[in-house]
Specification:
- By secondary structure, this protein is mainly alpha-helical.
- It contains 11 helices and 2 strands; from the N terminus they run ββααααααααααα.
- Helices cover about 60% and strands about 0% of the residues.
- β1 and β2 form a beta hairpin.
- The longest helix has about 35 residues.
């Protein structure tokens, strides 16, 4: 038996009569193993860039919307409201009942009787006791302050709840109200500033008209001029007040989602609404009309039922009416503002640069393909030897 031949590629022993290796197919006796490749001398290769993980602090993973129009705002409002109807209904039912009860209790404590329909969302008053103006102003001020505190807490809480539910993030009412209490003073401060500004713009021409009417009763010749001036000023300042309300309406989500101060939230709203104020005005106008129609449809029948009973029955029906109106439509403006904020803040416009420092929401898994386990593996170099084959 003749000596065997070792394959130069894989080292397998082959018979002397074999032309090709029985293991890898390499031609025997004709292949010389290739010398190892020595890399050329030079500076060491640059280290790979550090791995940047998925940006988990960013609170949502939805794609950027292409539009922030009147229709988008309204559709977002009803989408959030219909999908989260029960939480909004329960919270605003409690808010309406609380504000209506506060009005009844304050009026009873001051007047010794109940002012019907004086709740925050209640029907117009049907009976007013004969009291001096000081007590009446004190009752209104006390009701307004307590109602403003309750409304500020609920507005802040449900604004963040609406924004996160619109983004598809999980959010509990407990967490929402904890956040609302944390940011309560900023919401209340911005609310008071905006209300005082609008109240001042509307009240000034009304005072001028009142002066004109008093002058007319006293026989002054300048009555017509004062009255015309007051009406013109009322129209001009009324339009200005409406413009300011639209431009500054997004302060609640700005305060809640960006942890802004009261003035900072108003300033942020002014910046965000530029270029979109007509769309926001149209959405708010349509929502306000729908809210008014539904409020009348609920309040008038209940008011008629209450008027048929005694004073206590009428007071109870007024509180029930206030609670039902609030439960069904009290959250609509809050949800609309939250949706408009999210659409505008993610809308690519020249007014914005980098995304604002959002408050991180609850942990949400990133979409498939977004998370990375680490840097990519190094490329595999081809084998140095010749490929197998005949």
């Amino acid at each position: 038996m003749s000596a065997s031949i070792a394959c130069p590629a894989c080292g397998t022993a082959n018979a002397a009569t074999n032309t090709f290796c029985v293991n890898c197919g390499t031609r025997l006796g004709s292949v010389v193993p290739a010398a190892p490749v020595v890399p050329p001398a030079g500076p060491p290769a640059a280290a790979p860039p550090p791995y940047v993980p998925y940006p988990t602090p960013y609170p949502y993973y939805a794609p950027l919307p292409r539009r922030a129009t009147f229709g988008d705002m309204l559709s977002g409002l009803f989408d959030v409201w219909s999908k989260n109807f029960l939480p909004f209904f329960v919270v605003y039912l409690a808010l309406g009942a609380a504000t209506g009860a506060v009005a009844a209790v304050v009026s009873y404590a001051i007047f010794g009787t109940v002012v019907i329909g004086a709740g925050f969302f209640g029907v117009p008053a049907t009976t007013l006791p004969t009291v001096d103006l000081g007590l009446l102003l004190l009752s209104g001020a006390a009701t307004f302050v307590i109602s403003a505190i309750l409304v500020s807490i609920v507005t802040g809480s449900m604004t963040e709840y609406a924004v996160r539910r619109y983004r598809g993030e999980p959010m509990t009412l407990e967490r929402a109200f904890r956040r609302g209490l944390e940011r309560f003073l900023s919401i209340l401060g911005a609310y008071a500033l905006l209300e005082l500004l609008i109240f001042g713009l509307v009240t000034l021409p009304l005072l001028l008209i009142l002066v004109a009417l008093v002058a007319g009763l006293s026989g002054a010749s300048s009555t017509i001029a004062l009255l015309c001036g007051g009406l013109i000023l009322f129209v001009v300042l009324g339009v200005l007040a409406l413009f300011l309300y639209i431009a500054l309406a997004l302060y609640p989500p700005a305060i809640m989602m960006e942890n802004a101060s009261a003035v900072g939230g108003l300033s942020r709203s002014w910046q965000m609404t530029r270029g979109h104020r007509w769309s926001l005005f149209g959405a708010i106008l349509v929502t306000a009309i729908l809210v008014g129609v539904i409020s009348i449809a609920i309040s008038i029948p209940l008011g008629l039922v209450g008027s048929a009973g005694g004073l206590i029955v009428a007071a109870f029906v007024s509180v029930v009416s206030s609670a039902l109106v609030s439960a069904f439509v009290g959250s609509w403006i809050v949800i609309l503002v939250a949706v408009a904020y999210d659409l505008l803040v993610r809308h690519p416009t020249p007014y914005f640069g980098a995304a604002p420092p959002y408050m991180s929401g609850p942990a949400v898994a990133p979409p498939l393909g977004a998370a990375q386990a680490g840097p990519p593996p190094p490329p595999v170099s081809p084998p140095s030897g010749p490929p197998p084959g005949p």
